[in-house]
Write a structure and sequence with these properties.
The chain has about 220 residues and is mainly alpha-helical. It has one domain. About 80% of the residues lie in helices and about 0% in strands. It is built from ten helices and no strands. The radius of gyration is 20 Å and the shape is globular. It starts with 6 loop residues before the first helix and ends in an 8-residue tail after the last helix.
Length: about 220
């Protein structure tokens, strides 16, 4: 007879290690916009020179400060919600973190919409990109609201799905750096139209991955 006395602990340890791969990848992707946001906050608080690129932030700093802080918390803290084993073992933490994520996600979406509508547009941002930002910012806000409504109805499956969609949109800035990098390396700085399409592509990629995660069937455990 085969000795399986150590198989279960080894399988559990392997599962725990594997369960952290997605959060680790999300944290790495989040680092791109978080670092950029930290640089922007340093400019605003450190008395940097005012330039055409940052003048709008110095004129009205509150929306961008709220956006950077809330997106940073939302990106990093949200990544841990994808560690299923950790989440199941610490349900209290999951609920407390979830409340903070809802608040930060809604503020991030609303501040992003405000900046799109009221900040002067920087060079390279046209009507198309503004429209795309409004669509995805609104979609992020609605996804979080629908996720909150679902959990209040105890519909955990829909709650999970909507919160994953909202998080995917919120993480768009990290993927946008990756979609624009090949263009910059091969062609140079993208113009107004290619930039809008590359940024939209990043949001669509994130949502496609989220939908795949939502719809895939969990693996069947062998006896």
């Amino acid at each position: 007879m085969e000795d399986r006395s150590g198989a279960a602990p080894l399988a559990a340890a392997s599962s725990r290690r594997g369960g952290w791969r997605v959060p680790a990848a999300l944290i790495a992707l989040s680092a791109i916009p978080v670092i950029a946001g930290a640089v922007r906050l340093t400019e605003l608080t450190g008395g940097a020179a005012i330039t055409p690129d940052n003048a709008r932030f110095f004129a009205t700093p509150l929306p961008v400060v709220l956006h950077i802080i809330c997106v940073s918390v939302y990106s990093f803290l949200g990544a841990f919600q994808f560690a299923s084993g950790f989440r199941r073992r610490r349900l209290g933490w999951h609920r407390v973190a979830g409340r903070l994520l809802v608040f930060c996600g809604l503020v991030a979406a609303l501040s992003g919409l405000w900046m799109t509508m009221f900040y002067p547009r920087p060079e390279g941002d046209g009507e198309l990109l503004a429209g795309i930002r409004l669509v995805f910012g609104t979609a992020m806000f609605l996804s979080i609201v629908l996720g909150l409504a679902a959990v209040r109805r105890r519909d955990i499956a829909r709650h999970r799905a909507w919160m994953m969609r909202g998080y995917a949109i919120g993480l768009g800035a990290g993927t946008q750096a990756l979609t624009q990098l090949p263009w910059i390396l091969l062609v140079g700085k993208p113009g107004e139209f290619p930039r809008a399409l590359l940024m939209a592509a990043a949001w669509m990629i994130n949502l496609a991955v989220a939908e795949w995660l939502i719809r895939r069937r969990p693996p069947r455990l062998s006896s």
